[in-house]
Amino acid sequence: MQYFPPALERLVEQFARLPGIGGKTAQRLAFFVLSLPENEAASFAQAILDAKQTVTYCPVCQNLTDGGPCAICQNPKRDPSVICVVADPRDIVAFERTREYNGLYHVLHGVISPMNHVGPDDLRIKSLLERLSKGGVSEVIMATNPDTEGEATAMYLSRLLKPFGVKISRLAYGIPVGSHLEFADDATLMRALEGRREM
After folding, report:
1. What is the pTM of this model?
2. How much of the chain exceeds pLDDT 70, in percent?
3. What is the mean pLDDT of residues 114-135?
4. pLDDT for 107
5. Rounded Cα distance, 187 and 4, in Å
6. Which residues pair with 136 in a beta bridge?
7. Are 40 and 91 in the same domain?
């Protein structure tokens, strides 16, 4: 039985397709959009269309941009000899929040995942190899997640990049700040020991 008009049902269905949005949240969002004045609803819809039409990939690092190289690649204060490889553009935001990393990035747009039918050819690896072949890079930091797919991707890339003669490093993982050792699992403690540094 249909409770809402077809147009509203379609709107709820579209919101429900978004990641992390269930049926009830989709309904709330749809009702919120309906409650907007027509000009605000039109502005909301136009923002979606504008983003879809204008946001593209940086030709250098594959980050999101609105045309040409992204702001990070264009920044002359960044160190071009260090490239941090991440799986997703959202990972760049996390690094930038720290205000500690001053190199460049390369976005893979995913990780190797045989279960999800994602192989190396589905990732932005070719453009990374092209960047390294031009020279000037001394270190590549593998910053994929410490899960099975992230580890597999980092291992695959490190073997692929060895012939370029650059330093290949992996993010250290371990005990989160503010937590207690008694609650850490074995793998986390092992990583913390491996990643220890002199004080």
Report:
1. 0.82
2. 96
3. 92
4. 97
5. 50
6. none
7. no
Domain limit, last residue, from 54, 72, 93: 54
Residue spans of beta strands (DSSP E) within the chain? 56-57, 64-65, 79-86, 103-107, 139-142, 167-170
3-state SS, residue 55: coil
- Counting the structural domains of the chain, the total is 2
Q: What are phi and psi of 142, to 5 degrees?
A: -85, 110
**Residue 176 pLDDT exceeds 60:** yes
Structure token pair of residue 44: 């909301």
CATH number, domain at 12? 1.10.8.420
Please state, in angstroms and as integers, the Cα–Cα distance from residue 145 to each residue in 44, 51, 86, 197, following that order: 33, 27, 8, 21
Average pLDDT, the chain: 90
DSSP H/E element including 96:
helix 89-98
Q: What is the secondary structure of 119-147 as a DSSP string?
A: -GGGSTTHHHHHHHHT----EEEE---SS
Query: Both tokens of residue 68?
Result: 């040409």
- Please give the C-alpha separations between residue 198 and each of 3, 62, 181, 195, in angstroms, as whole numbers: 65, 35, 19, 10
In a domain, 59, yes or no: no
